[in-house]
């Protein structure tokens, strides 16, 4: 089971966005469930629950983990593909940039989306830990101080990258610094 599944297309988002399907996903705890069990838990007709399960299975949100034969009927047991589901930031792009004179924020949004994509890919691959993220809130800075922090980070990264001594424990990282004005 993956830690995180990032939904990147509208078909997947549409499948999970139905209120009954969200209710179904919320029923799973530590063990797989069948459509019959879910219909009993949710007090809904078996056919209705089975339909929603098939939609979640079709787009890869649920995995078929076991089949048991009970009284000559095959009972299928499902479990979520990941512990949590996130919606990718690039699923829907719309911008009036270029249509409004002087609009230049699209470049920055695209850069942030690139960083977000790298983050989601690492999360899906199970490569993130507490040591990968440091965030600070409500920090009062001038624009010059925020720029100073960025330049200090850039200089430190260049210093580390320039070191001739490369050992086998080194990995490639995406490193981002974002200072976001609150107002």
Describe the structure.
By secondary structure, this protein is α+β, with helices and mostly antiparallel strands. Helix content is 41%, strand content 17%. It has six helices and five strands. The strands form two sheets. A three-stranded antiparallel beta sheet has the order 2-4-3. It has a two-stranded parallel ribbon with strand order 1-5. A hairpin with a 2-residue loop joins β3 (62-70) and β4. α3 packs across α4. The longest helix is centred in the C-terminal third of the chain and has 20 residues, at 143-162. The radius of gyration is 23 Å and the shape is elongated. Mean pLDDT is 82; it is low at 98-103.
Q: Tell me the Rg in angstroms.
A: 23 Å
In whole angstroms, the N-to-C terminal distance is: 40 Å
Helix content: 40-55%
Secondary structure class reads alpha+beta
Unreliable residue stretches: 98-103
Broad shape? elongated
Strand-and-helix sequence, N→C? EHHEHHEEEHH
Write the SSE topology.
Layout: E1 2-7, H1 10-17, H2 19-25, E2 33-34, H3 35-42, H4 46-58, E3 62-70, E4 73-80, E5 82-87, H5 106-124, H6 143-162
Parallel strand pairs: 1-5
Antiparallel strand pairs: 2-4, 3-4
Q: Which structural traits does this protein have?
A:
183 residues; 3-stranded antiparallel sheet; alpha+beta; two-stranded parallel sheet
């Amino acid at each position: 089971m993956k830690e995180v599944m990032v939904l990147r297309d509208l078909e997947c988002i549409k499948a999970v966005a139905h209120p009954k399907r969200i209710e179904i996903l919320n029923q799973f705890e530590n063990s797989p469930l069948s459509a019959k069990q879910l219909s009993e838990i949710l007090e809904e007709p078996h056919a209705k629950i089975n339909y929603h399960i098939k939609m979640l299975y079709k787009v890869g949100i649920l995995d078929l983990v076991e089949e048991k034969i009970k009284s000559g009927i095959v009972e299928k047991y499902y479990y979520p593909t990941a512990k949590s589901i996130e919606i990718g930031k690039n699923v829907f792009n719309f911008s009036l940039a270029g249509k409004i004179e002087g609009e230049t924020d699209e470049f920055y949004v695209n850069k942030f989306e690139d960083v977000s994509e790298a983050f989601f890919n690492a999360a899906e691959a199970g490569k993130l830990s507490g040591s990968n993220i440091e965030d600070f809130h409500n920090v009062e800075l001038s624009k010059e101080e925020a720029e100073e922090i960025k330049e200090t980070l850039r200089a430190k990264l260049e210093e580390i990258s320039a070191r001739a001594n490369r050992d086998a424990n080194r990995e490639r990282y995406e490193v981002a610094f974002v200072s976001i004005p609150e107002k």
